[in-house]
């Protein structure tokens, strides 16, 4: 799946600076083996795709549309046919210049942030038919979706929310301001956090995603973990958690932790 974004879309209202690539030409599917074109998505007229995501049963696009409104659209992965298009806003439209990023494609969860002070800054969940579900105010620096819930990491802990209602399900971990979440992974009935303490060590926490109960808790020195590099992600491979850091030529970019 490819999104051919035209840099001039941002200046589409400026005289003589209109885009050369129409929105309905921008989302394309290619054959993975040959690179041959498969289809172009039927993006609604007057809309420009800003972000795309591919789920198991549909292709999704966050759209900036005419009339200063942001929308969400779904397409058939077989031929790009439009399935549905829904506005992101509830009682009022979400502005088309809002930041939009997919946290998950299946289920559909989109983070939306309007630039104005009183604008929407939240995670929005949608059903497979585009019906609006839960809304969760955005906070923290890490988000993950698994097991029908949205998990937000903040401070030294995690808060879980139901995707359908947006209600808080549980919160666990430390609220010590000296701790900060550096990476988070959710899946397989577990939520795993890596946190950093100002006193100079890293910590690993594993919680049950249904209840928030602590399953595992460990502390590592930075010398042992080589953890001074900036974390860019946390992945799961069998019974290992693999932390990924930005390499600078001096530190190892990967650290692996075996779950208990």
Automatic annotation (TrEMBL):
SUPFAM superfamilies (UniProt xref): Quinoprotein alcohol dehydrogenase-like
Domain Pyrrolo-quinoline quinone repeat span(s) in chain numbering: 23-109, 133-214
Alphabetical list of InterPro entries matching this protein: PQQ_rpt_dom (IPR002372), Quinoprotein_ADH-like_sf (IPR011047), WD40/YVTN_repeat-like_dom_sf (IPR015943)
Name of the protein in question: Outer membrane protein assembly factor BamB
């Amino acid at each position: 799946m490819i999104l051919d974004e035209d840099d001039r879309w941002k200046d589409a209202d400026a005289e003589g600076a209109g885009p050369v690539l129409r929105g309905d030409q921008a989302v394309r599917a290619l054959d993975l083996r040959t690179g041959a074109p498969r289809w172009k998505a039927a993006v609604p007229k007057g809309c420009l795709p800003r972000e795309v995501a591919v789920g198991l049963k549909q292709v999704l696009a966050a759209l900036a549309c005419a009339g200063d409104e942001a929308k969400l659209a779904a397409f058939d992965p077989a031929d790009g046919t439009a399935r549905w298009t829904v506005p992101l806003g509830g009682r009022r439209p979400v502005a088309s210049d809002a930041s939009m990023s997919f946290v998950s494609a299946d289920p559909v969860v989109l983070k939306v942030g309007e630039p104005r002070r009183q604008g929407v800054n939240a995670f929005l969940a949608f059903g497979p038919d585009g019906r609006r579900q839960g809304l969760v105010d955005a906070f923290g620096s890490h988000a993950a979706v698994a097991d029908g819930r949205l998990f937000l990491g903040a401070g030294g802990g995690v808060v879980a929310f139901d995707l359908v209602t947006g209600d808080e399900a549980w919160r666990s971990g430390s609220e010590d301001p000296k701790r900060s979440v550096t990476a988070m992974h959710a899946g397989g009935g577990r939520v795993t956090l890596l946190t950093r303490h100002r006193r100079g060590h890293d910590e690993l926490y594993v919680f049950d995603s249904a209840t928030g109960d602590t399953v595992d808790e460990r502390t590592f020195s930075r010398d042992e973990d080589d953890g001074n590099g900036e974390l860019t992600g946390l992945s799961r491979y069998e019974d290992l958690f693999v932390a990924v850091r930005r390499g600078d030529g001096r530190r190892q970019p990967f650290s692996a932790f075996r779950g208990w």
